[in-house]
């Protein structure tokens, strides 16, 4: 393994490019052109159009087509197929994009750092729906209040979609809950939380100090949508006890679920911090279920090839210093 100690902290960037790009049998100028070829490919992949990519890069369409052919010839693959007046990505293109998007992103970050650009590139930060509703506003306010960093791009979505955006290099990092399904993802925990069962104070079970799974057999449940980490945790925890949750309502809207519980439509399973205000006001009642573990961990996630620049590290430290409301 080659070592380049004087390139630290960009050592891993060089090694990544060194191993992924063709072996260095060319001079440095040709090696740089290989990176530019990957940049053209990434743009075509995102735009899904040779013409749009050429316009965005301010180069000719033949130059774009030539770069794509060079990649296809280099790796003996087909990247795009014609589909009507447009083009369609192949499975090989999607696989190559996983590498190329990170290589070009790392190169651009290195280039910007050494050229000392006046304005820091805004971070692209993702939040799962749950964390976006409770922690995101305060975290973003604390992160930007000094005025030393630009307002980041923010995406709030389901944990599965946020993870996909990280893998495709559409986001730099994200805050999610649950366990990542990709071995290309690195995670750093920053908080733990409890899911609880809540119902209307007028619900018959609200008269009990503690309840069991037997008490819930005939009850109606109000759950988050399929794919939500909150839903996954609840279903897996109950499944361990051979209990199948069958919702009468499932929604991406936390407010709709809370309102359903308040109006006695059924029993909701939600993160404790999202219903704490309603519990304090007496609008909802927390059921104390015995024998079922409903704790989960919140975590920062990012791609294993992502270079953690000082701004990202500062954001991550800020997140770890915050406590759940």
TrEMBL record:
<dbReference type="Pfam" id="PF03466">
    <property type="entry name" value="LysR_substrate"/>
</dbReference>
<dbReference type="InterPro" id="IPR005119">
    <property type="entry name" value="LysR_subst-bd"/>
</dbReference>
<feature type="domain" description="HTH lysR-type">
    <location>
        <begin position="33"/>
        <end position="90"/>
    </location>
</feature>
<keyword id="KW-0238">DNA-binding</keyword>
<dbReference type="Pfam" id="PF00126">
    <property type="entry name" value="HTH_1"/>
</dbReference>
<dbReference type="GO" id="GO:0000976">
    <property type="term" value="F:transcription cis-regulatory region binding"/>
</dbReference>
<dbReference type="InterPro" id="IPR000847">
    <property type="entry name" value="LysR_HTH_N"/>
</dbReference>
<keyword id="KW-0805">Transcription regulation</keyword>
<dbReference type="InterPro" id="IPR036390">
    <property type="entry name" value="WH_DNA-bd_sf"/>
</dbReference>
<protein>
    <submittedName>
        <fullName>LysR family transcriptional regulator</fullName>
    </submittedName>
</protein>
<keyword id="KW-0804">Transcription</keyword>
<comment type="similarity">
    <text>Belongs to the LysR transcriptional regulatory family.</text>
</comment>
<dbReference type="InterPro" id="IPR036388">
    <property type="entry name" value="WH-like_DNA-bd_sf"/>
</dbReference>
<dbReference type="GO" id="GO:0003700">
    <property type="term" value="F:DNA-binding transcription factor activity"/>
</dbReference>
């Amino acid at each position: 393994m080659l070592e380049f100690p004087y390139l630290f902290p960009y050592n891993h960037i060089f090694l990544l490019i060194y191993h992924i790009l063709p072996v260095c049998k060319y001079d440095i100028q040709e090696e740089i052109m290989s990176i530019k070829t990957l940049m053209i490919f990434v743009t075509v992949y995102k735009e899904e159009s040779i013409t749009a990519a050429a316009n965005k890069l301010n180069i000719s369409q033949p130059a774009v087509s030539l770069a794509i052919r060079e990649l296809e010839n280099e790796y003996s693959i087909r990247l795009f197929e014609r589909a009507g007046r447009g083009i369609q990505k192949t499975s090989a293109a999607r696989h190559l994009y996983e590498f190329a998007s990170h290589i070009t992103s790392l190169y651009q970050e290195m280039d910007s750092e050494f050229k000392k650009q006046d304005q820091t590139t805004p971070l692209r930060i993702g939040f799962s729906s749950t964390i976006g509703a409770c922690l995101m506003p305060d975290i973003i306010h604390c992160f930007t209040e000094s005025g030393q960093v630009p307002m980041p791009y923010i995406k709030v979505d389901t944990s599965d979609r946020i993870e996909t955006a990280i893998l495709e290099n559409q986001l730099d990092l994200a805050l999610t809950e649950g366990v990542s399904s990709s071995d290309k993802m690195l995670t750093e925990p920053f908080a733990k939380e409890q899911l609880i069962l809540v119902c209307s104070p007028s619900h018959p079970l609200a008269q009990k100090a503690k309840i069991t799974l037997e008490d819930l057999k005939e009850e109606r449940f109000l759950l988050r949508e399929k794919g939500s980490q909150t839903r996954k945790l609840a279903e897996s925890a109950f499944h361990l006890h051979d209990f199948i949750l069958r919702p009468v309502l499932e929604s991406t809207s936390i407010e709709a679920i809370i309102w359903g519980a308040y109006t006695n439509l059924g029993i909701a399973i939600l993160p404790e911090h999202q219903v704490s205000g309603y519990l304090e006001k007496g609008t909802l009642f927390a059921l104390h279920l015995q024998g079922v573990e409903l704790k989960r961990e919140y975590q920062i996630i990012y791609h294993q090839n992502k270079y953690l620049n000082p701004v990202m590290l500062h954001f991550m430290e800020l997140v770890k210093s915050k406590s759940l409301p």
